[in-house]
Structure formats: C-alpha cells, structure tokens
Amino acid sequence: MSTLIENFLKSAKKPLIVILGPTASGKTALSLKIAKKYNCEIISTDSRQIYKEMEIGTDAITLEEQNGIPHHMLGITTPDKTITMSEYVDLALEKIEEIYSRGHIPILVGGTGLYISAIIERYDMPKIPPNEKLREELEKMSTEDLHEKLKKLNPEAAERIHPNNRRYVIRAIEIATADSPKKASEKPHFDVYMIGIKWPREELYQRVNYRVDRQIERGLLDEVKKLLKKGYAENLPSMSSLGVKEIIPYLKGESTLEECLNILKQSTRKYAKRQMTWFRRYDNVEWITPDKIDTYV
Fold first, then answer.
1. Reduced to 3 states, what is the DSSP secondary structure of residue 269?
2. Which pTM value belongs to this model?
3. pLDDT higher than threshold 70 for residue 155
4. Which end of the chain has the smaller Cβ count within 10 Å, N or C?
5. CATH of domain 201-275
6. pLDDT band at 186, cuts 50/70/90?
C-alpha cells in the first residue's frame, strides 16, 4: 500500500497527507510510521489539543512518543484563551508553508473534521471577533432551534456543522449576523492524499473504553483538579472538552467516579460516531482496516 503514497508523492507539486479516523482509532501510530519513512512533519487537527495543561484529557501525544518527529499546533494556548477556527487555519497554513520550505511533507492528523475541511477545502472564514452578548442569548436556545436558525442564515454552514456541535453552530450564527465580514483571500491549492482508519464499531467502542481507563491511570483526575484550582471557568470552550466536563461533577462531589466515567465513555463513543458521519462526506479517502496499520509502510 505504501506504493500508493510513493506514486502520489512523485506526482504531487504540493503534497499534503491527511490521516483521519474516529477517536482511539490509531491515527497517531500510523502518522508516526508515515512521517518517519517519508520525511514528514505532523500538524494536529484536533480542536482540543491546542490547549496546554490538558494533555491527558485530550490524549495529546507526548514529547517522548513523538520520537523526534516535529509536531505542530499542540499546546499553543492556555485554557482561558479562545482560538477561532479562522485563527487556527491561518496558523496551520503558516506551518504548512514552513514545512514545505524545509523540504519536508506536511501531514494533517486529527479527528476534528471541520478543521481538516477548513484547510483542504479552504473555507472562506471572516475575521469576526466574538460577540459575548449574542452568545449569551444563543446559549439559551435549544439545540434544534439553534441549528434551524443557522439553516436560515447560512444553509451551507448548517449542512457541514452537526446540530449537536453547539459551539460551532453558535460561532457560525455569530459570523452570519456580523456586519461586513472580511473574507479570506486566496484559496491555497494542495495535492491531498487522505488515509482513513475504519474499525468495526464494537471493537472501536472497546478501544474507547480502554483509553478512558488509561487516562484515569495516567492522572486525569489530578489534571482536571489543577484546571479548576487555577480558576478556569467551567463555561470556557476548553473546559467543555471530553475528559474534562465529565470529571468535574465527581470532583465537586455531585456524582460518583463510576457514574462520571460511564458518562465519559458514552460521550466519547457518541463523538466517535459523529466523527465517522463527518468523514464519510469525503469521497477520496483510502480506508484501511486496523490490521493494516502495522504493515502499511
């Protein structure tokens, strides 16, 4: 199968490899193999791994695990800061150009489909600052009403943003209702090669459950406790991350640890299902089964 990548790299002028798949599918392991063989650098397309101090909850790759391969867009801001998708894309595009300048090949690795699409399809994203007053009003609306409102304002955005992703729906409404938005200028052209990892559902769910158990062993409770001790507000986007918001009720004495872990596992399984729904929109993915990861390159 590596022959397919090699043929792609021979013909591509601006090669961009994308490794996608649901959470706990083995994207990291595959990306390291490909990066080592083809002189690549890795850019995280995970909307939560941009935060520092949350490495266990977001399951970010450690420095030791990186094995000397350059990684970008990890831990680039603190949990009390907000990076818009537009800002993220601008930073990621800068990194891609830097990687090309070193004669290396960029690989996008992560499970946030909207970030991947924003880069490879280069959505036009207005530079609109947050509108806190509008956000407060929108937060009071039901998920269904929110998405319906977005449909009326921007049907295209509503099509690509899942109704349950309230934060992105609210941001899209915020952009749609702003005055005189500034559009992104040119759309960059990349030659894209997409590789996806597809697990049987029950096996993937077992991996998700195992990962949560490992996160607890690695110190997830202490990590979330430190975040609360530092005074990070629970309504921050960072604090709504999987692995954080589910643990808070236990630390506040409102639920048992077993209850919180069951909710975390269930929420992560649902998230994995939504990720696969998003990834099925791409028609040019080379899907591989998990037994092919170790022998792919």
1. helix
2. 0.83
3. yes
4. N
5. 1.10.287.890
6. low
